[in-house]
Amino acid sequence: MLTIKHICVILLAMINKFYKKYLIFCLTNFLLSLIIGVIFYLLGRTSVFNILDVKTKSFLLTLSFYLPDALWAYALYYTLSLIHKSWISVFLTFLTSICWELLQQYNIVNGTFDYIDIFMYLMAILIAIIIKKLWRNKNDKNNT
Q1: pTM across the whole model
Q2: How confident is the model at residue 62 (pLDDT cuts 50, 70, 90)?
Q3: Cβ(48)–Cβ(71) under 8 Å?
Q4: What gap in Å lies between CA 39 and CA 8, rounded to an integer?
Q5: Residue 53 — left, alpha, or beta (φ > 0 → left; ψ -120 to 50 → alpha)?
């Protein structure tokens, strides 16, 4: 006979399985975004792009200055998503990004204040939300 205790154990096992998948998903997004960001950051500050034609070099150099910041915000969002609800993660990620730019504006930390950075932070957060939503929809269907 199926008791409430059995039902609770089954439900906890399902939740635990989903959370493990979610943890792996978040950590994968976190690590990949940081690795890609570091690669672009380092490539943009070396002479690697000198062998490319002018248009490609210009595009990649521009990308190397903005993409690492966007990927940093993306990684921060996924880290905070493990701890907080989605809207809190969005708020804290965007607030941290704005504060970072303001610290640069007032020369408290090294760097250059840039509105494009703020735009890139926002785009990264929106992309992270969309990817997370798609992942959740796919995994919710698989769990039912």
Answers
A1: 0.79
A2: confident
A3: no
A4: 46
A5: beta
